[in-house]
Design goal:
This protein has a domain of 148 residues. The chain is built from eleven helices and eleven strands. The strands form three sheets. It has a seven-stranded antiparallel β-sheet, sandwiched between helices. It has a two-stranded antiparallel ribbon with strand order 7-8.
């Protein structure tokens, strides 16, 4: 099982996710309504069971068969046509060429040594797996690995998984996963959609997770002390402690001393850094990765749930002879629920408050921030704080992503409206009290200057 890394292609049987609504007909419609009434009366309506009721392997999602247009799919087409080629490096295979082709910065490198992914026989505390990422793509590399591993975000279908053989080929081609990755990458840990996760485990000396000691799925809300078990971490973090940079004895996991792994700036004592493209496993890159994976999942969950709700509402419209565009109350409640989750994720609700400043060791902090976009005052949602929180202006940069722009129309409009309500309110909004008036004012000004959805929104106080 994938426990710490972003994606996996481990093959094992995956559970079927519930049952689908029956196809309506005039003969069965009465009993369908009786069944639905009993379902709602039992408190098991779509708001609680939608992820299980409507299997995403079937329409309208059709996850395994629907065409995708993520960055890997687009690059695959260019490779197949001969429009582009990939150089094969004698040490790292196709990795350097892939990172360049996909515009993935080497400084994003993080290193995970727990045996929790596809090529676990290649991974150990001496031979960690390297992960690289940008806003849309995640790349996994193992020394002497058979394949490179990829997770790519499609605006409509969400996380899609691929491998690429590391053997020399005149026209290398990515192979799309046909569902085996979903055994780990489609659960409550990924918000019940195919998605990404960062796991923190207690690894033993060989890198195997000591599962009886518990594991954590981490994001920007996670306490520092629960993060990065099974990862190498380079950076400064003052008096805060994390689980990284060390292995654990079976009977001493919860009482283990975290001091040996603290404030590490070089990894020479554990690995041979020259074997990787970078000697770093940057702390700030890890923090961004934790936020980004769950933000991607929230956007995909909103996309899926909205499409499913509308699909089932349309079925009821046909059954009850209602206008085709009608949205039932239950469908609207489902959409409202996932919209609120997106807004909360975008605005870093419940973010862990740093008690010491943090810093990385690579150029990632600079490389990430310069990607902008900037407003007229030179401000960006990519600017870091790193004193008490991750970003200076706590609104996710993934608001600029294609996944956000291409949310179903009704969900997209609702997210924009709810964000506007929070950011333009005269005072603190319940559930968003962590945002000061200054925060809300600055975020809205930045969005007005850089995002077309907010161009005409009135700024607080104007």
């Amino acid at each position: 099982m994938l426990s710490t890394s972003v994606f996996s292609s481990e093959a094992r049987p995956r559970p079927r996710l519930g049952f689908a609504l029956p196809i309506f007909s005039s003969v069965t419609s009465f009993w369908v309504l009786v069944w639905l009434f009993g379902w709602f009366s039992a408190g098991l309506g779509p708001s609680r069971l939608s992820a299980q009721v409507a299997n995403y392997e079937r329409p309208p999602i059709d996850y395994l068969r629907a065409e995708v247009h993520d960055p890997i799919a687009r690059l695959n087409q260019r490779l197949a046509s001969g429009e582009v080629s990939l150089a094969h490096d004698p040490r790292h295979g196709y990795l350097p060429a892939i990172l360049e082709a996909l515009d993935v910065p080497v400084s994003s490198q993080t290193l995970v040594f727990s045996k929790t992914s596809l090529q676990l026989q290649r991974i150990s505390p001496r031979l960690p797996r390297a992960l690289y990422f940008n806003d849309e793509v995640y790349v996994g590399y193992c020394q002497r690995g058979d394949v490179l591993e990829f997770g790519a975000t499609d605006a409509w279908q969400g996380a899609t998984f691929y491998t690429l053989e590391q053997s020399i080929d005149e026209r290398p081609q990515f192979v799309r996963d046909q569902g085996s990755c979903l055994s780990c990458h489609a659960s409550s840990r990924t918000q019940n959609v195919p998605g990404y996760l960062i796991r923190s485990v207690y690894p033993n000396g060989a890198g195997h997770p000591i599962l009886g000691s518990g594991t954590y799925t981490t994001d920007h809300t996670s306490p520092f002390a629960e993060r990065w078990g099974g990862w190498y971490v380079t950076g400064q973090h003052g008096d805060m402690r994390h689980m990284g940079n060390q292995v654990y004895a079976k009977n001493e996991t919860r009482s283990a001393d975290l001091e040996p792994g603290a404030n590490v700036t070089a990894l020479d004592a554990w690995i041979r850094p020259a074997a990787y493209l970078s000697p770093h496993s940057d702390l700030v890159a890890l923090m961004v990765l934790e936020h980004q994976t769950q933000m991607h999942n929230a956007l995909a969950a909103a996309n899926y749930e909205t499409r499913l709700a509308l699909h089932q509402s349309n079925q009821m419209n046909a059954l009850l002879d209602r206008p085709a565009e009608s949205i039932s109350d239950s469908a609207q409640r489902r959409i409202d629920a996932v919209v609120e989750q997106v807004v909360r994720q975008l605005l870093f609700c419940d973010e862990f408050v740093l008690t010491s400043p943090v810093s990385g060791t690579s150029s990632f902090t600079v490389d990430f921030a310069v990607r902008g976009p900037l407003d007229a005052q030179g401000r960006s949602l990519r600017q870091f704080d790193l004193q008490t929180r991750l970003f200076r202006y706590p609104c996710s940069y993934l608001i600029y992503s294609e996944s956000f722009r291409k949310l179903p129309r009704v969900a997209h409009a609702a997210v924009v409206q709810r964000l506007t309500e929070v950011l333009t309110a005269a005072g603190p909004v319940v559930g968003f009290e962590h945002l000061s008036d200054q925060d809300r004012h600055a975020i809205l000004e930045i969005l007005r200057g850089t995002h077309p959805d907010f161009a005409t929104t009135t700024v607080v106080g104007q």
